[in-house]
Amino acid sequence: MIPAMDLKRQYGQIKKELAGAISRVFACSNYVLGEEVKSLEKEFAGYLGVKYAVGVNSGTDALFLALKACGIDKNDEVITCAFGYIASVLGISYCGAKPVLVDVNIRDFNIDVTKIEKAITSRTKAILPVHLYGQMCDMIPLLRLAKRYNLKVIEDCAQAHGAKIRISNGKKWCMAGTMGDVGCYSFYPTKNLGAYGDGGMLVTNNKQTYQQLLLLRDYGRKDRYEFVLKGYNSRLDEFQAAMLRVKLKHLDQWNKKRQQAALLYHQGIKLDNLFLPLESLGRNHVYHLFVIRTPQRKKLQEYLRKQGIGTAIHYPIPIHLQEAYRDLRYKEGAFPIAEQIAREVFSLPMFPELKSAEIKSVCQKLNCFKR
Ligand SMILES: Cc1ncc(COP(=O)(O)O)c(C=O)c1O
Predict the structure, then answer these.
(1) Residue spans in the chain of domains classed CATH 3.40.640.10
(2) Distance in Å, CA 87 to ligand 1 centroid
(3) Looking at the domain covering 251-367, what would its CATH class be?
(4) 7-103+111-248, what's its fold?
(5) Does any ligand 1 atom lie closer than 6 A to the CB of residue 159?
(6) Which residues, including other chains, have CB under 8 Å from residue 40's CB and lie 6 or more apart?
């Protein structure tokens, strides 16, 4: 059996380091907002080349608190994409604001930047691009548009730890989360940088936003028993932070392994009418997922299952057709690319510890598929 994802293999490799990190927390016995969270925030900000980082209890909360810190309120509209994971949109709803959806492009499954302007109204306050599957969106035209209309940009980087985009005529690389007003990360266990439970992180270069985020994640607390706003309890815990510090050191190497696995897939898969992920020019794609597309998804997935190959669908229903978002009143056909992708995509096994022989075996089995 070749699993779609296997976290045990990674645990086996870093078991000792993790045990050391856990003991450190017990020895200190400070379990909430202690030295580990502080150190991880500093190290993660350093890794991204950004001024500030704030640990929170999930990627979903990171998005919600980012929108709050940017002043998003009821009656506001926030533009995001019609295809992806529902958590990207939930934060907008938590603020009481209205998500306004835009179709994605078939090339990289990210928001179609050319369709954003049409969705802007007098109520639009922000754009929330999602760097899906490990590849960044087309940020330069998106940021230009945001500047022109005075909109905040909140980046969903839940699937893009280590992803980069080349800017300034190729002279500079920018990391996901550092180009907009706030970047939001998830440390859900299966992510490229995953905790052993829930966790998330916000990053920003804006001091005022940073200070607001510190208050929002900790009840609105200014001093021990002094509260200046109605905040939330959304803190990253010390155990998760300690283990994430261990894993952050391995992140680049793990991402390289994902890229090597992607290269092997690209070289090995020779099946007609099967679309492999495309890397846009000037992107460092970190392959959180290796998502392929075919109109024969059901048949191909079933065939692979019988061959002992695990696959998954990310994601089978676009946001506008989810029951939870029926209130937005979008109809089937509203976002044709999102709907097509939802019908056709599925993910092949992808994690850093996947062996070359396993990838070759997946390619071989795929190539033998009879339509
Ligand atoms: C694109 C995207 N955004 C947001 C989230 C939410 O993150 P979390 O599960 O940490 O709340 C996820 C993940 O699970 C995600 O994939």
Answers:
(1) 7-103+111-248
(2) 6
(3) alpha beta
(4) Aspartate Aminotransferase; domain 2 (3.40.640)
(5) yes
(6) 53, 55, 201, 236, 241, 242, 244, 245, 248
188, 198, 286, 319, best to mutate for ligand 1 pocket (most atoms within 8 Å of CB):
188
Q: CA neighbours within 13 Å on the CB side: how many for 222?
A: 5
Q: What would the two tokens of residue 212 be?
A: 């607001």
Contact indicator for 94, 73 with CB cutoff of 8 Å = no
* 330 within ligand 1 shell (Cβ under 6 A): no
CATH 3.90.1150.10 segments of the chain: 251-367
pTM here is: 0.98
Given a contact cutoff of 8 angstroms between Cβ atoms, the answer to whether 179 and 153 are in contact is: yes
Q: What is the pLDDT along the chain (371 residues), one digit of tens a residue?
A: 999 999 999 999 999 999 999 999 999 999 999 999 999 999 999 999 999 999 999 999 999 999 999 999 999 999 999 999 999 999 999 999 999 999 999 999 999 999 999 999 999 999 999 999 999 999 999 999 999 999 999 999 999 999 999 997 888 999 999 999 999 999 999 999 999 999 999 999 999 999 999 999 999 999 999 999 999 999 999 999 999 999 999 999 999 999 999 999 999 999 998 999 999 989 999 999 999 999 999 999 999 999 999 999 999 999 999 999 999 999 999 999 999 999 999 999 999 999 999 999 999 999 999 87
Please give the distance, rounded to the nearest whole angstrom, from the Cα atom of residue 158 to the centre of ligand 1.
5
Q: Is 60 in the pocket of ligand 1 (CB under 6 A)?
A: yes
Ligand 1 binding pocket includes 240 (Cβ within 6 Å): no
